[in-house]
Automatic annotation (TrEMBL):
Pathway: Carbohydrate degradation; pentose phosphate pathway; D-ribulose 5-phosphate from D-glucose 6-phosphate (oxidative stage): step 1/3. Gene3D superfamilies: Dihydrodipicolinate Reductase, domain 2, NAD(P)-binding Rossmann-like Domain. This is Glucose-6-phosphate 1-dehydrogenase. GO terms for molecular function: glucose-6-phosphate dehydrogenase activity; NADP binding. GO terms for cellular component: cytosol. Catalyzes the oxidation of glucose 6-phosphate to 6-phosphogluconolactone. InterPro entries: G6P_DH (IPR001282), G6P_DH_AS (IPR019796), G6P_DH_C (IPR022675), G6P_DH_NAD-bd (IPR022674), NAD(P)-bd_dom_sf (IPR036291). Its EC number is 1.1.1.49. Residues 14-187 form the Glucose-6-phosphate dehydrogenase NAD-binding domain. Substrate binds at H178, K182, E216, D235, K331. It holds the Pfam family G6PD_C. The keyword Oxidoreductase applies. It catalyses: D-glucose 6-phosphate + NADP(+) = 6-phospho-D-glucono-1,5-lactone + NADPH + H(+). The gene is zwf.
Amino acid sequence: MVSRVIPVEPFDLVVFGATGDLARRKILPGLYRRWLAGQIPEGSRLIGAARSAMTPGAFRAFAAQAIDEFVADDKRDAAAEAAFLARLEYVAVDAEGQTGWRELAALMRDGVVRAFYFSVAPALFGSLAERLKQHAIADDASRVVVEKPFGSDLETARALNATLARHFQEAQIYRIDHYLGKETVQNLMAVRFANILFEPLWNAQYVDHVQITVAETVGVAGRASYYDKSGAMRDMVQNHMMQLLCLIAMEPPYHFDPDAVRDEKLKVIRALDPVRAENIVRGQYLPGAGQPGYLEDVENPESQSESFVALQAHISNWRWKGTPFYLRTGKRLRARVSEIAVTFKEPPHSIFDDAQGWRENVLVIRLQPDEGMNLKVMIKEPGPGGMRLVQVPLDMSFAEALGAEGADMPDAYERLIMDVIRGNQTLFMRGDEVEAAWAWTDPVIDLWDGQKPHDYEPGTSGPEEALMLMHRDGRRWREIR
Ligand code: NAP
């Protein structure tokens, strides 16, 4: 299969926060890979901006080091790298002061797409937006990209939306949730809406329950101060897991069009029932295997923030009433795995007297590692002696099925940045969607005010209590492995 690269218009992309961790690990290496793939046209430029005084040459050396560190060896090409680095400029700009803005304005060109990536703390979004307008650097055709976290509750998200709306139209604002840039996440829509196979069964009549798991083996060290204020519910559930739930549960949009898709996602969020206290379990990892526990990692022995959360959600609409959605995410768990498992109901009647070995059909969509799908189906166990049933997987790794192209999928950030340049908002969150997600999340967080999470051993599936969340319904979590 031949990889298709769709070129974009020439652009000036200004990255505020260009000396930061996200720029170093994701944005700069990602843009280099797109350059190598031939997607970035000649005449495009990347302009780094941050407070640090730095020459363009020093910024190129910083970018070269980032490429060295975060781009795989088989993607290194000295000539391409030199040509890419030659596209980089740097301006020292203070988001909150007047330094650098005139110089930045002088660098901008007419006749190319102008995009501004706010890879800085959200507290700076307002002053950046204001100065971009004040110095006529951004106009009504420009695009701004904003990073997570988009608020820490409904009130702060509303305030951020209002700040951005003072300077930009909604159609100019690209709120990143990098999960939406993952190949398999988009594949959820292709699997559901480009095949007739699943959709007739995709409802409460045939689906017993859905499990969404995002498990990590790492702890919170390195992000401890941010994480301890946030916890898993704000860091993962309100955004990434909510997006996965929406893509699984939404109605078919009338077209694969940004607002049509986002309208349908919004309807799912609004149809979510409030979560009851008995349907949530929170946890904190203990020390173990030579690693500190959560409380040591965040250096706060009194912390009540959760590094694990499992909950049961219900969607009150015609399609899903009665089908629970179990969500679980955590740090320091047994394995790094993200997957969605749709478990179907029993056939209405078994024609086999001896239905030994019968198990439910399960469609597992793996986001990582080894992106792909796995459908568990029943067949006859080979051999004489009657009809015995056995469950076998129909397993498809996208990398294997798609050959070289599948093994070479762009990183989520690369794809999303190119979508910004293309002006396609489908994979970005709309302001009302983010607010609706907070409106559901806030009361959940209020439920545990003053309560300590359960402990769990590192390298496990989380607290025992989370197992009970499903056992009491006669269901089981899939193993994390
Ligand atoms: P970081 O490493 O702390 O970098 C912050 C950047 O902002 C630096 O380049 C800093 O440069 C610049 N900056 C700070 N104050 C400034 C000012 N007044 N004017 C201009 N520039 C200023 O943060 P980060 O990890 O890259 O995160 C950036 C954003 O991405 C945050 O919103 C974060 O929540 C989000 N995010 C990050 C990650 C990640 O993996 N890192 C993941 C998801 C989301 P100077 O000090 O030189 O000014």
